Amino acid sequence: LNSTNTQLGANASIPAKPAQTRDTSHLRLGNRGTVTEASGFNPEEDAQKIYNAMKGAGTNEATIIEILAHRTIAQRQKIKEAFKQSVGKELLDCLKSELTGNFEMVVVGLMMPAPVYDAYELKNAIKGAGTEEACLIDILASRSKAEIKEIIATYKKEHGKSLEDDVCGDTSGMFQRVLVSLLTAGRDESTKVDEAQADIYEAGEAHWGTDEVKFLTVLCVRNRNHLLRVFQEYQKISGRDIEDSIKREMSGCLEDAFLAIVKCMKNKPAFFAERLYKSMKGLGTTDNVLIRIMVARAEIDMLDIKAEFLKMYGKTLHSFIKGDTSGDYRKILLELCGGEK
């Protein structure tokens, strides 16, 4: 907990008003989220309630949860503006001075527009000793072209550095090449299946073998419909699922990256359901993964992630979170999860 929380200490460079120049929060929104626009929304009233919850001795966390877990990203930006106007301070700074631990991490994440949060998570994954490769994979394998372009621009603006340069400085080999390819945001996003593309017919294991560049070219560039067809053909020719072959042929971060791309192409909510399950099963919890997915997907496809979780594991995501977390951290995650079913 402590090591995770040090990333959010007083010196962390959290952007103050990232949505001022260009509001990009709409880019990520889906219509399958558990968090939806609050009706009768009054940012000034919300800002006043949050201020009252923090002033004086102690903090009324229940009020903070009640408001922030039930407002969209766009609405939270308006609360930030109203708070600054009425109190003369940055809401994010005030929240960070009042809250601690994993609860603070969730709240801080909720206050950022989507590209800013992704850029912030990527920066934390790269900086310091070691790299959290899972974060790089989770974000870059699952975001659309438009989203990746926004993340790159936001990263440069917030951190004054090129995301590609930072990724290259912290990774190596074929894994680095996969991440760089994803960062070019060059994936074809048409729905056309090109029968003439050789990779449909050369998908057999005998042809691909350990040709990692072939995997990279196909998995990082082709559109989703084309890839789903490639996976079908691959199964026919080699008698093996593409995921099984990746597991046999690859290892480490490269294996994780290719698997994440395949899974996101097949079924993105199922990919996130599996990541959530693995973050909580067994002893201990990988809180940074749990927080990142709950915050990032709450407004997009959390309803679908919950449905896939139940289908895959026979238990509700709600029950898993409830059994694996505690206190205000548990309360805010359960609100983002949105009910038991």
TrEMBL record:
Biased composition (Polar residues): 1-10
Chief subcellular location: membrane
GO cellular component terms, A-Z: nucleus; plasma membrane; zymogen granule membrane
Record's bilayer topology term: Peripheral membrane protein
Locations listed in the record: Zymogen granule membrane
Chain spans, region Disordered: 1-24
Coiled coil (UniProt feature): none
Xref: InterPro entries: Annexin, Annexin_repeat, Annexin_repeat_CS, Annexin_sf, ANX4
Endoplasmic reticulum among keywords: no
MF-aspect GO terms: calcium ion binding; calcium-dependent phospholipid binding; phosphatidylserine binding
Keywords tagged on the record: Acetylation, Annexin, Calcium, Calcium/phospholipid-binding, Cytoplasmic vesicle, Membrane, Phosphoprotein, Repeat
Family, similarity comment: Belongs to the annexin family.
Domain notes: A pair of annexin repeats may form one binding site for calcium and phospholipid.
The protein's name: Annexin
